[in-house]
Amino acid sequence: MSRIPVEDDSAVTRFHLDDLQVAAAHVLPSQVWDFVAGGSGRERTLAANRAALDRLYVMPRVMTDVSAVTMGTELLGTKASLPVAVAPMAYQRLLHPEGELASAAAAAAAGIPFTVSTLSSYRMEDIAAVGGVTWFQLYWLRDRGLVTELVRRAEDSGCRALLVTVDVSEMGRRFRDLRNGFALPPEVTAANLAPQNASGAHERGGTGSALATHTRALFHPGVTWDDLAWLRERTRLPLVLKGVLDPDDADLAATLGVAGLVVSNHGGRQLDGAIPSIEALPAVRDAVAGRCALLLDSGIRSGEDVLKALALGASGVLLGRPVLWGLALDGEYGVREALSMLSAELSSAMTLAGCPDVPTTRRLRVVADSRPDGSDRWEGI
Question: What CDD domains does the entry give (predicted)?
């Protein structure tokens, strides 16, 4: 794989996460960058996630004592120093030899949870041994015996929650990967799976994505609410459904007793044309009416984005691609840099919005810029 040509940017000071994105694009092989940065289809939802967040504005509160802002909170029953967790992301050894071990160490240092992907490139046991709070993300596999085994291993490893991804009946059509004929290099594997279940992602077959072919063979497209009941009988871990956007689905999940939901469109990597996650959040919030925790992902790039999500009812957010940018640049210390940037931005945003702690962010009003024709109109949310 060729590297993207770039002038030496080692002397460039990085102030925010967008700077990390630019730097990471310079150092990663082009096919790996496409795998990380790309979305499905024509990438409309990928772009819409950012556009939706950018059109939201917060009404700050004044005359509030913000001399000591605290960002600590509780996420899925565990304490976190920020209302942030690291999202589940596969095959992180593509970005850095230490992969998930480095990202998990940075999350532990920051005092936030790290979510281990089913398709992580290090074993969940090794990632959990790094320390810190870990959650496990479960893809529903065709082989129920493997599902049961993964859940048992997550419990034995000390994972504190089970995030069940429900929006991947099959992998979205990611045209960048299809054009690149993307496949994993031999040294990067789905370490949580036995070799016979992991090898398909390495097999190039002309134009097409080996990862899509692999997941199509591995993932079960026929999962229903009955399967959720089956899973609840087989684990003591809190169940969280990741990939919920419709309020009717959210209401049903809360009625069935899930511990939480992740309002997510998979970072624009599944159904192209799906609603931006932040726009789905208010209706989901109203549907669950406090019956379960709400997390949000897809498009979070700043502390201001986190503040908007909190104000609209999220308990916290999952941070995805920015973690990978930091990992690509400097392993654990690059991820630490990304998390530090986000923490500083959130602290500043809360201070300037008049919020001394996470609970007070709920009182903020959020409005949307609804001026496609340039007229001066604002829409309350």
Answer: alpha_hydroxyacid_oxid_FMN
